[in-house]
Amino acid sequence: MTVNVHEGPHGYTPLLFLGTKEGREEFASFRASWEKERGKLTLIDDLLREENAEYGLLLDPTFLARGEKPPFPFDASLDGTWVVYPWRSVAVHVLPEEAFKALRLSRNKDLITAEEGRLLASKTIAIAGLNVGNPAAICLAQEGIGNKFRMADNDTLALSNLNRFRAGLPDLGENKAVLSARQAYEIDPFLAIEVWPDGIAKDNLERFITDADIVVEEMDNLPLKILLREEARKKKKPVVMVTGNGHDIILDIERFDTTPDLPLLSGKLTKDVIDAVAKKLPFEEKIALARDFMGREYLSDRLNDSFDKVGKTLIGIPQLAEASFLRGAVLAHAIRDILLGVPVESGRYAFGLSQLYTVRS
């Protein structure tokens, strides 16, 4: 049986052909049709034998201590799932879903217990803004945090993004949510990802977060930041966000799930800020508002000074790859703890690489 056969309007969904007689026949038919219409479909089949052996070791780790080779649990040629990535013109032969996930996440043990892993894999995560949200989405997918994702962004990848966005020149011009979904699916083809390439708006916010267990907000649009939080507060959904400080980060956690009357963004989104947004401020005042929104007291001197240069000697607020990857890791860590019920309080947390050399052992 074939599942996930819809490629999506932007080509971000893989095609899965299960290891059944019907699935193998469908894959053979699909491959013949593909190569007739589109050219060669590259097959990656030679690693499945190694994965099969490693899965056998996972089932009985004592073979490792004895220096023996475990038996193969599967007849790989019959049981393996073919995963086709249309955007790469590649088909990869992988273990069946249960074995695939167990082996792929095997190095999580015992940092994430089996019970915790099952709980995390049942969650739905909504990510609004896949620039900063991209490293978070990838880290979540790698750790097995969440099985269903909703990714929204209407922006496309530009050359100036490549100092921090995990992509390359062939990806320029592609939607950032589409790229993030592709990257996550290339880690785990059994995920369920909804891509919203037009982003979110006032009229679809409710649908975006209704069944989500947690919301990641990383948009540039301040009015939408406010509307999303108001909707999350109504639906009692926790919201997390990180912003950058060159090489440091600011983490905001809003536990609307436990404290629905919490002020928006720890009180940073005051009535004055909301009124200022509604006034359609001049460019310079918008930039100053963005700096105040992030918090001058949290920003390095260089970053604080750079805000005054945007539109003069700078074309945007400076950001670095090291902070981008750190933001992704911090978001994933906070999301995991919240979903597992670890006591995580609402508030703003600031830390980063500038503290790296402050403590020596």
Automatic annotation (TrEMBL):
Gene3D superfamilies attached to this UniProt entry: NAD(P)-binding Rossmann-like Domain (3.40.50.720)
Pfam family name, one: ThiF
Swiss-Prot/TrEMBL GO biological process terms: cyclic threonylcarbamoyladenosine biosynthetic process
CDD domains referenced in this protein's UniProt entry, alphabetically: E1_enzyme_family
Gene Ontology molecular function: any one: ubiquitin-like modifier activating enzyme activity
InterPro entries (UniProt xref): ThiF/MoeB/HesA, ThiF_NAD_FAD-bd, Ubiquitin-activating_enz
Record domain THIF-type NAD/FAD binding fold: where: 115-242
Protein name: THIF-type NAD/FAD binding fold domain-containing protein
